[in-house]
Amino acid sequence: MKDGFTMSELEQFGKQHKLTILFSGIFLLAAIVNTVWWNTLSIWLLAIAAIIGLCFPEQIGNFLLKVARALANQDKTVRMIFAGVALVIALIFPPLIFCITGLIAGVALKYKAEVFKGKEKPEEPKKPEEPKKE
Q: In this structure, are residues 21 and 14 in contact, taking their beta carbons and an 8 Å threshold?
């Protein structure tokens, strides 16, 4: 039995779980700052955003999907800048982080409820068709 991780194991873990580490850090930072300065505003925004996500899942889901695709198409430098902006937002105005999380949670809850009822998987927005090659 070994007594810890080697540096190469930690590097490998970090490379495989970049988004998990980033979002965990953002949520932890937002939670700490929120408890110190913002009290219950984040809880209210989380709940209201989740209700909005439940009421308008297609519109919110399509918007979030467009944002995610736009970020995925950017080069690494731009994505790192957006990650830095998210960390700054978590420091300055953490209720916004919880509001966005509530929107995502509401859409996910609506989706899971439909799957649980036995309905088929909701359709994703259609991708633009590529020109036919002849």
A: yes
CA–CA gap between residue 101 and residue 46 (Å, rounded): 7
Give 50-76 as a DSSP string: HHHHHHSHHHHHHHHHHHHHHHHTS-H
Instruction: Give the model confidence (pLDDT) of 59-69 as tens digits.
Output: 888 888 888 88
Q: How far apart are CA 110 and CA 51, in angstroms?
A: 10
Residue type, 23: F
Alpha-carbon distance of 92 to 107, in angstroms, equals 26
SS3 119: coil
Task: Write down the residue that tokens 């919110």 correspond to.
Answer: 60
Query: pLDDT of 20-35, one tens digit each?
Result: 787 778 888 878 887 7
Tally the residues of the chain.
134
Nearest-angstrom CA–CA distance, 39 and 19: 27
